[in-house]
Amino acid sequence: MTTSPAEERICVGTIAGSFGVRGEVRLKSFCANPEDIEIYSPLSTEDGSQSFPVVLTRSVKNGFAARLGGVETKEEADALRGVQLFAPRDRLPALPDDEFYYTDLIGLEVLDTGGTLLGRVKDVQNHGAGDLLEIQTPGQTATVLLPFTRAHVPTVDLDAGRIIADPPEGLL
Question: Radius of gyration (Cα) for the chain, nearest Å?
């Protein structure tokens, strides 16, 4: 089954646990403008089984305190810890040519500048120092992390389903 672009969803945040005793949650936003997460409400769980209207109540360290529709107690909020929240792609802004949603990169072939297949993008990670492409190399179980910078990834061609990479010497 294929998903139409209108049905495709993008992860825009995660619930980091409860905040206080009245059912508020601590919400981490993955949006370029963190407070925009409220604009994309209602947000759903990854499997789409639950949907929540979101109202940000205040900024807190590393995120926001928020009210989720249907969540009334601290216990209900605690039970949602770690749940990722998704918005329909068609509600999100179009990106400039040099920016990408992580989901668009996963699964792309990665070729070197000579056209040799290096692998496929398994995941995109960011541990605070910039984006990294996790590359699954052919015939290997271990993955390689490639810095997602213009120097190391000069071309991303979503239409062709490939990335041209110039990895640092010795990485692959």
Answer: 19
Looking at residue 32, its amino acid is: A
- State how far the Cα of 93 lies from the Cα of 27, in Å rounded to an integer: 21
Q: How far apart are CA 88 and CA 165, in angstroms?
A: 30
Q: Which residue has the tokens 């792309």?
A: 108
Q: How far is CA 44 from the centre of its chain?
A: 14
Q: What is the pLDDT of residues 3-41, one digit of tens each?
A: 444 458 899 999 999 999 999 999 999 888 899 999 999
Order the strands of the 143-147 sheet from edge to edge. Answer: 143-147, 131-136, 117-126, 109-112, 162-165, 155-157
pLDDT digits (tens, 9 = 90+) for 72-121: 999 999 999 999 999 999 998 888 888 888 889 999 999 999 999 999 99
